[in-house]
Automatic annotation (TrEMBL):
Originating species: Pseudomonas zhanjiangensis
Keyword Signal (UniProt): no
Domain of life, per lineage: Bacteria
Coiled-coil intervals, chain numbering: none
Membrane topology according to the record: Multi-pass membrane protein
Listed name of the protein: LysE family translocator
Subcellular location field: Cell membrane
Segments traversing the membrane: 44-62, 74-91, 139-168, 180-197
Signal peptide stretch: none
InterPro entries in the cross-refs: LeuE-type
Main location: membrane
Annotated Pfam families: LysE (PF01810)
Amino acid sequence: MTPELLLAFIAFAFVTSVTPGPNNTMLLASGANFGLRRTLPHMLGISLGLMLLVLAVGLGLGQLFEQVPMFYSLLRYVGAAYLLYLAWKIARAGAPDDQTGERGKPFGFFQAAAFQWVNPKAWIMAIGAITTYTPQDDFVVNVLCIAALFALVNCPTMSVWTVAGSLLRQWLSSPRVLRGFNVGMALLLVASLYPILADVKGTL
């Protein structure tokens, strides 16, 4: 991989990781509800899940979508259904010690990693990384490098959203205000589905 292509990929990874999407919306909500420390497993799980997804796409899974386009459509709608379920859970969640709503708990490491496999934006990111930035020479080695770099760029950029959420905690001490915030995050999560359901193939 040439230095120019490497820098271009790092810019791609940064932009797609830091811009709004399902993962970052959930991290903002988690940071506000549970703080930075309790959200760390969620962040690390996203990075690992995305890295494994990039590896899988690079090592052959991406060709399945080219051969059977129906699988890609099925994935998008299964992912959309799961995101709607998560939005409903976020909207109903109260503070961890609030008895008026569902007792919330942050995403775990493995839960966050597994979520990437039904996250349409993660698939767009992985397919874009492999098809656009991975040279054919020494392809397997380049896939490994791309996957590792994606994880390295992804985690610190996502932390911006978690930290932003944690900084909001002092203004969300009222259960009513926190409930309103969670409803707002749920609506943003639903809004992130529009490009998927409108069949937009770009980044979210």
